[in-house]
Design goal:
Blueprint (H helix, E strand, L loop, with lengths): L18 E5 L4 H10 L4 E6 L19 H6 L4 E5 L4 H12 L7 E4 L9 H7 L4 E6 L9 H7 L21 H24 L3 E6 H11 L2 H6 L16 E6 L5 E6 L2 H11 L2 H11 L6 H6 L1 H13 L3 H8 L5 E4 L3 H6 L1 H4 L6 E6 L3 E6 L22 H9 L3 H9 L3 E2 L8
Parallel strand pairs: 1-2, 1-4, 2-3, 4-5, 5-6
Antiparallel strand pairs: 3-12, 7-8, 8-9, 10-11
Helix pairs in contact: 1-6, 6-7
Length: about 425
């Protein structure tokens, strides 16, 4: 018998009655599960005894609760199982293959777990959907930062003239892989609805980075023998865009992608005639963004003089009268301090009461579905839903659960010794 959708803070639930068993850690696969949960899927997170290794990853609240983990696992249910035991893995397999039409889906970055591989689960349920994150296509482990190193981007990041590689603090390949995993899972579920067939979906972190490098032209540029691209700091490659400092130590990023942007930028800064004379002297047309990029240093120096003679407020007020693309640089502390606009007034955000952290603003899904947007829910404690899930999904009685606890196969967050 199918369990009814749980009443909670979700408003948009296009994935209601879809149940996913998640066995994962760190960024990509948890992000994938949360993305689906925020759209109404019931995501049941399986964790080893004491919780997964990423439960204590920085940044931490004063209590030691991971802000990182809590941010990536909102709205899920949590079951604590001894995955090192055959009985524990069999119990998780029972969860995967149960659930009728809404079940039979597993999302994982732990492809090595015996009894929970695609091959093993397919024997028990032929239409199972098994979505797996790999590091490399051949199964060799990798993380975002090693993939960054292997795919060239850190050698283009950083200030002009830098020698050392500069990794991005944003794990971009993890984020992109997580969204690819979600897309692959939904595509496989769509295929199962149409044909009744299950399948395995695999996404390799390195492949995500390579695909992006290829899609954006970086790989073709290198293959065709074009002059190697150099670091260019905050300059926008192939167009005109860079950061500028104001007299009061403010800083803005300004981008003029189109000819109209460029004309308005020159007009508001009073540099139209000066730049026109420069164009005539050089024999170039700055309506062409390629020419703006080639001459970015001299053009940037002219504009830097204008910004450097004004306060941040004056520069912001002037740019606000144009269609030029711009934004002031702000720290995360600045963003939080400005919560009246960015947090309280943005429907993406809502206050969440998270155990170990307290009440704070957190994002729901950035997807608007027919004008509706899901609200964020707290992340689960270790084993918070063990009894509820195993009782409802597998029909285990209180006595059955007690025996499993006594044998060390499962645990709830209330049990003595639970982390």
């Amino acid at each position: 018998m199918e369990t009814p959708p749980r009443p909670d803070a979700r408003r948009s639930q296009p994935l209601r009655r879809l149940r996913i068993i998640e066995i994962s850690s760190y960024v990509a696969s948890p992000l994938s599960g949360m993305t689906l949960a925020q759209l109404g899927a019931e995501v049941i997170r399986i964790e080893p005894m004491g919780g997964a290794a990423d439960r204590t990853r920085w940044p931490l609240a004063e209590s030691g609760t991971s802000l990182y983990w809590s941010g990536l696992n909102k709205g899920k249910r949590a079951v604590q199982v001894d995955l090192s035991s055959e009985e524990g893995r069999r119990l998780v397999g029972d969860l995967v293959v149960s659930g009728g039409r809404r079940g039979g889906i597993v999302l994982s970055n732990a492809g090595h777990l015996r009894d929970l591989t695609f091959e093993a689960l397919r024997v028990r349920r032929p239409d199972v959907i098994h979505v797996l994150l790999d590091g490399h296509r051949n199964g060799v482990p990798a993380v975002d930062y090693t993939v960054q190193a292997a795919t060239g981007f850190p050698l283009l990041t950083g200030p002009d003239g830098a020698v050392e590689p500069v990794n991005s603090p944003v794990p971009a390949w993890d984020v992109a892989a997580g969204l690819y995993l979600a897309i692959g899972l939904l595509a496989a579920e769509r295929h199962r609805l149409l044909t009744g067939e299950g399948q395995q979906v695999r996404v390799a972190l390195e492949d995500v980075a390579l695909a992006t490098a290829g899609n954006l032209g970086y790989l073709a540029e290198a293959q065709l023998g074009v002059e190697p691209r150099e670091r260019s700091g905050n300059d926008v490659y192939g167009s005109f865009g860079r950061d500028f400092a104001t007299v009061d130590e403010g800083r803005l990023m300004v981008v003029a992608l189109t000819a109209r942007h460029w004309r308005e930028l020159l007009a508001v800064t009073g540099l139209t005639d000066v730049v026109g004379a420069l164009a005539a002297a050089l024999g170039v047309d700055f309506a062409d963004e390629s020419e703006r990029y080639r001459q970015r240093r001299v053009l940037g120096d002219l504009l830097a003089g204008w910004f450097g003679a004004r306060t941040l407020a004056e520069a912001e007020a002037a740019l606000a009268t144009t269609r030029v693309l711009w934004s002031t640089y702000r720290s995360f502390a600045d963003l939080v301090a400005d919560d009246a606009r960015l947090l309280r007034e943005n429907p993406l955000m809502a206050e969440v009461e998270q155990p170990g952290i307290g009440r704070h603003w957190a994002p729901g899904s950035p997807l608007l579905m027919d004008g509706d947007q899901s609200l964020p829910l707290p992340s689960p404690l270790v084993g918070q839903h063990t009894d509820d899930v195993l009782g409802a999904e597998l029909g285990l009685s209180a006595d059955d659960l007690a025996v499993l606890k006594k044998n060390g196969v499962i645990r709830t967050h209330d049990d003595e010794g639970s982390a």
